[in-house]
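Re: that chain you flagged

S.,

Sorry for the slow reply, it's been a week of failed gels. I finally had a moment to sit down with the sequence you sent. For the record, here it is as I used it:
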Amino acid sequence: MNPTWHETLHQIEDFRQLSKCKYRLGDLLLLGLCTYWCNGQDYEDMVLFTRHRAAELADLLDLRGRVPSHDTFNRAFQQIDPQVLRTCLAAHGQELLPLLAEKQICVDGKKIKGVSPTSKGTAGYWLVNAWVSENRLCVGQCRVADKANELEAVPQVLAQLDLTEAVVTLDAMGCQRTIAAQIRQQNGHYLLALKQNHQMLFQEVADAFARSLTPGVAQRWEYARSRFEQRQVWCLPAAQVLGAEQRAAWSGLQTVVKVVACRTQKGQTQCQTRYYLSDESEANPLYYGKLAQGHWSIENHLHWHLDVTFREDQCRVRKGFGPENLATLRKIALQIITRQPDKLSLQKRRVQAAYQGQYLRQLIA
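Prediction finished late last night. Pasting the structure tokens below so you have them in one place:
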């Protein structure tokens, strides 16, 4: 039987000088996690949750009628090694999904705007996340100083994972020869978005598809009578498009892909053309179309919920390791509440946990 989150968090080794501590580290972490489940977002909310709800969890906590202050939570989350909570996040994903083989792993960065609200563009506090599209699980995370350093973080995130027979998808920032080589060395496959940061390669691929007479395969999704999306997907063997030297520069490159996505909403249509590099030799364009569409799962099911459901960008925690540790705690809370067997929206599940003690205990277990 898998341990409850009460047991998991209390197994974490306490880094503090225990003779000077009133509260167990595991209790503070559990209170933080419960606060996120109950619609809270910062240290003040953790204090409020403890004051009004901790009595319901008296058998799990050792507070002795006391309420930790804002500063107590602040110090704990500032100082705890982020790797500790990252390990909890990864372990939870491994319990639910022991193998990543034949899974799509989307890697992308997200800016936590509340940490540096005055920063603009690519500057600021970024986390690179690894997300299993089919199962909606975050299995890796790494902090970067700003988006320009994302290239340094992506290899670190990938190194945390067993990529054997998994397909890694990245946007244009991750379309790099070294990253393609690392994925292949870890026995994985890749689908990399190709843009004009590789201008000559981009132009060669675009010209090849312009000359090709190969018919595209169409897909259509209708969301409402006035809103639908249609995609056409083409793929060509890389050997027909690129010279031997160009192919050799990209480890295992086998196929180039073109996707034209047209979205119609309220009578207006917008089209966008994207190109991709793949080390797989699958001849069916729909296979690559599914992967290209699946990459958006990290935006729609992880980043969107962190921003909208958990209001991540409104959290102003900035000191020490606090921003990263709270970001990890939010991901743990999101993954657990997503898997609850009811028909409520994620936001309504958080509201229900805030009102109903039995529902909250169900999340802890």
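What I noticed first: DSSP finds 15 helices and nine strands in the chain.

Talk soon,
D.
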